[in-house]
């Protein structure tokens, strides 16, 4: 698993405080801190919370349906319920 720089991807999660302290302690040899995009992090957080709510539906979390079409229909129905409950 390569880091964000080797594959030309930007970091979406903030750097933990202990890693910041370790980087500062190493000084020049600590390397360059990863870039952090606050807007991309907000979008990622929204998607993760939505997936978390979908997993509350037992049939979706364990994938009881055999066909992709029926599973996708269940996702749509759950999405409608979640969206309408807002």
Question: Can you describe what's shown?
Answer:
The chain is elongated. It is mostly helical. It is built from 4 helices and no strands. It is 57% helix and 0% strand.
pLDDT < 50 stretches: none
Helices, by number, come to: 4
- Backbone shape: elongated
- Helicity level: 55-70%
Give the number of DSSP strands. 0
| Sheet of most strands | none
SSE ordering: HHHH
In whole angstroms, the N-to-C terminal distance is 38 Å
Q: What number is the mean pLDDT? A: 81
Measured by DSSP, the beta-strand proportion falls in under 5%
SS class: mainly alpha
Radius of gyration: 19 Å
Spell out the blueprint of helices and strands.
Blueprint (H helix, E strand, L loop, with lengths): L16 H10 L11 H17 L3 H5 L5 H17 L2
Describe the structure in brief.
This protein is an all-alpha fold and 86 residues long. Helix content is 57%, strand content 0%.
Keywords for this entry:
elongated; mainly alpha; 0% strand; 86 residues
